[in-house]
Structure formats: C-alpha cells, structure tokens
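Need tokens for this chain, all 82 residues.
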Amino acid sequence: MMERLGFSAALFAALAVAQSASITKMRGKELAAYALLLLPVLYQGVNYVSQAGWPSLPELMCGLLKAPATAIDRYLSSGGNG
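Here are the structure tokens for all 82 residues:
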C-alpha cells in the first residue's frame, strides 16, 4: 500500500507543479470546473491506493447513464414523436 500511496502522491505532485501557474490564474467557475474534473481522478486514486474494490468509473457511469441513454434511444428510435 505504501508503494501505491507514494506513486499516487508523486503523480499528484507532478500535476500540481505542471498546473500551478494555470491554477493560480483561475477564478470562480473555471476553478470549480477544474475541481469537478479532478473528482474522478481522486476517486480512482483512492480506489487504487486502498484496493477497496469499489466500482470502476466505467461501471459507475454505466449505472448512472443507462436509464437516460435507454430513454433517449427509445425516443429517437420512435422517430422523435415520444
């Protein structure tokens, strides 16, 4: 676990160094969008380090988006008439 933690910390440190100039210039919505984009990365990082066996991102996205995608597909296959 310590190797995984060290590896993840090194990757996040490299990301912070590479993005530091850009992050300091961000304000409001840009910073919020950047933080939201980092959430899946953090989720996968915690899952990787802890070896918790949580669902992967594709599994989560399938669970979240299956019903709306099916509804859209049904709507479009009916010719868009509902």
